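Quick one: examine the sequence and fold tokens given here and explain what the tokens say about the fold. Here goes:
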Amino acid sequence: MFAQLARRAARPAATAAAARRQFADAAPAAGLMKLNFNLPQETLYDSVNVKSVIVPGATGEYEVTADHVPIVAEMKAGMLTINHEDGEEEKYFVAGGFSLTHEGSATDIVCPEAVKLDDIDGAAVTKNFEAAKAKAAAAEAGSIEAAEAMIEVETNRSMGNALGMAMA
């Protein structure tokens, strides 16, 4: 379901972002950590040195940096921010998933879907949010249709919030 929502709100992906990714195999430099970011259909980062990752944890947002204590956390739908060593920020809307931080400054991000924040069309998110609210209001309470509509409402609300939009 998230994949359908993300596709409806996504603009065509830029190939320049893929071209600028740098892959590394050596141990991270001082102050850096290794990031592995995987989706079922592709690997976005494979052992890449980054400064930090801000994770939308299910119990709250947190930042992983070099030498972070090992942690396994469930992610909620929200914005994942990758801070590169050159100071550039790269932001993704993720549908949830897991973040696993290991000893040795390595973190694995595993999620079912991720869309670059720059590729999300705010107008489409607003339109989809309003349509989902109407569908939820029209559905019979406790029905499968009501549950599916609420998932659409909450997913679009999370996408809107990641874009800095007020979704009421």
